[in-house]
Backbone:
């Protein structure tokens, strides 16, 4: 397994934004239902179902779902998504401050549904502990932890300084490429993004086409209050950093606490122009659909 970065937590410096490096190897571990298990071979190739213009996947299916789910309840969107894309859909979770809500909705339908978690090796220890706590609490049996392999770390960030000098390149090899590889068997994925999290998400539809697969956002219309109410109603554990002023939690070099008056994502890459890690590309479904 790649070595976790235990170097002192630095302040993030000014960001530079050159093109990302070529894809490195990544690692994949399955968790839940026992000890973590290293998977020595990549997941099977995605079957030739879905795709552009097909009845199951494709941009037309995403657009149709965006319209159909425009006013749907989030648990219903989750339930319908898991049925419609049965065996070909994964939830991508950061196990962050809001993550318990969507994980609970998925677990209520299928505790064995694939959940993909990207461990960049620069996460807060509290996030890893929270992941393990939620796996146990919700009895999730198929949480797959993916991330950069040791070879990729040695090649791209041997001194663990890339977050300060080139955060786009750092996110590319630590997050984007491992997740892209992990999503390759799937026709659809579920995210926890919401419109109120950031101006860049203000137009978020309930479903969109990401160019390869259908991306479903059941919580798109939810506010902070919706999330808090659901979490209280189901007595879900809170991320240990949430009460310390971290409403949005990423890697520790790039996450700072926010003031109550700030946008929830204001603490991500604070002081730089960067607002997204690159996992979420622009939506293909126009506003109003
Ligand atoms: S959030 Fe920061 S540390 Fe994490 S992958 Fe991106 S640049 Fe690197």
Residues:
């Amino acid at each position: 397994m790649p070595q976790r970065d235990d170097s002192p937590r630095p302040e993030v410096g000014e960001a530079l934004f050159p093109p990302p490096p070529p894809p490195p190897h990544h690692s994949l571990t399955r968790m839940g239902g026992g000890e973590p298990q290293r998977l020595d071979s990549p997941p099977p190739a995605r079957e030739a179902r879905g795709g552009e213009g097909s009845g199951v996947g494709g941009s037309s299916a995403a657009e149709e779902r965006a319209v159909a789910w425009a006013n749907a309840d989030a648990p219903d969107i989750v339930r319908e998504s898991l049925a419609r894309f049965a065996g070909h859909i994964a939830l991508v979770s950061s196990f962050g401050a809001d993550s318990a809500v969507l994980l609970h909705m998925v677990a209520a339908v299928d505790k064995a549904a694939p959940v993909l978690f990207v461990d960049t090796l620069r996460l807060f220890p509290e996030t890893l502990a929270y992941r393990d706590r939620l796996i146990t609490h919700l009895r999730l049996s198929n949480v797959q932890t993916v991330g950069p392999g040791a070879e990729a770390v040695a090649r791209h960030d041997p001194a663990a300084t890339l977050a300060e000098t080139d955060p786009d390149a750092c996110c590319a090899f630590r997050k984007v490429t491992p997740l892209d590889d992990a999503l390759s068997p799937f026709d659809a994925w579920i995210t926890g993004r919401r419109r109120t999290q950031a101006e860049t998400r203000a137009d978020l539809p309930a479903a969109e086409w990401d160019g390869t697969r259908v991306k479903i956002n059941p919580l798109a219309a939810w506010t902070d209050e919706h999330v808090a109410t659901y979490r209280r109603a189901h007595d879900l554990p809170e991320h240990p950093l949430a009460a310390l002023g971290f409403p949005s939690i990423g890697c520790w070099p790039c996450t700072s606490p926010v003031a109550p008056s700030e946008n929830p994502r204001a603490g991500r890459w604070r002081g730089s122009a960067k607002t997204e890690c690159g996992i979420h590309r622009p939506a293909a479904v126009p506003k109003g659909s």
Summary: The chain has one domain: 26-31+51-254. Residues 120, 122, 163, 167, 170-171, 174-175, 250-251, 253-254, 277 surround iron/sulfur cluster (CB under 6 Å). The helical segments are 58-68, 74-84, 99-109, 125-138, 150-156, 162-165, 167-183, 224-233.
